[in-house]
Design a protein that fits this description.
There is one protein chain. By secondary structure, this protein is of the alpha/beta class. It contains nine helices and eight strands. Strands 3-2-1-4-5-6 form a six-stranded parallel sheet, sandwiched between helices. Helix 3 links the parallel strand 2 and strand 3. Helix 1 crosses helix 2. The two termini are 26 Å apart.
C-alpha cells in the first residue's frame, strides 16, 4: 500500500476530477488504484492483459479496464487528450512507453515499476507538453495514515489477498505467484504454524 500511495498517487499528483490510468493490475497497481481513490479522481482506468486482475480492479473501483491496445482506447476515451496521470506499475519498457503515449499536456507520469532494463525516454515528445515524470523508492512515511485508514475501513486491502500458505510452504507460494495468471494470484499471506 505505501508504494502504490507514495510512488503512484502522491508522485502522480492525483487530484479531484482527474483521469488516471494505471498500467499493470498486479498487487502494486491495485494498491495504487485503492490509494488514488483517496483523491477523488473522476476516472480510474486499469490496463492489464490479465482479465482476472481487471475484474479485481473493477471490484475495487476502477471505472474502466483495458486488456488490449491501450493507447488507442485511452485516446478514444479522452477525446484525444490523454490522461492527467499515467502510472507505470510493471517495470518493463513497453509499459513505460504506454505511459508516455497516453499522458496529456501538463500531465504526470508516476513510475512505480522496478525496471531491470533501459527504457526509451521520449523527451522530444514530452518536453513540449510540460509533462512531469517522477520515480522513486517507497520511504514508508505514509504508513501511519494508511494504517489508520485501513483500521477505519476506508480501504479494502483484504480483497488483494488471494492465497494463504503456511510459512514452511514458501516455495509453493512462490510457484503459485510465478504462475499468477493461471492461479489467479494477486497477494500471498504466509503464516507461522
Amino acid at each position: 500500500m505505501p508504494t502504490g500511495h507514495e510512488i503512484g498517487a502522491l508522485n502522480g499528483e492525483v487530484n479531484l476530477g482527474d483521469t488516471v490510468a494505471i498500467v499493470g493490475s498486479g498487487p502494486i497497481g491495485l494498491a495504487a488504484l485503492l490509494t488514488a481513490r483517496f483523491y477523488s479522481p473522476a476516472r480510474l482506468i486499469m490496463i492489464d492483459p490479465d482479465e482476472n486482475r481487471l475484474a479485481t480492479a473493477r471490484s475495487l473501483g476502477a471505472t474502466d479496464t483495458i486488456s488490449g491496445s491501450a493507447v488507442e482506447q485511452i485516446m478514444q476515451m479522452t477525446d484525444g487528450e490523454g490522461v492527467d496521470v499515467a502510472m507505470e506499475a510493471v517495470g518493463i519498457p513497453e509499459t513505460f512507453d504506454t505511459c508516455q503515449s497516453i499522458v496529456k499536456a501538463g500531465g504526470h507520469i508516476a513510475n512505480i515499476g522496478v525496471h531491470g532494463t533501459s527504457v526509451e525516454f521520449h523527451l522530444e515528445n514530452l518536453w513540449i507538453k510540460n509533462v512531469t515524470v517522477r520515480t522513486g523508492l517507497v520511504n514508508t512515511n505514509t504508513i501511519t495514515v494508511l494504517m489508520r485508514t485501513l483500521q477505519a475501513g476506508g480501504v479494502d486491502a483484504k480483497s488483494l489477498i488471494t492465497h494463504h500458505f503456511p510459512l514452511n510452504d514458501i516455495e509453493k507460494a512462490y510457484d503459485v505467484f510465478g504462475d499468477a495468471a493461471n492461479e489467479k494470484a494477486i497477494k500471498m499471506i504466509l503464516t507461522a504454524q
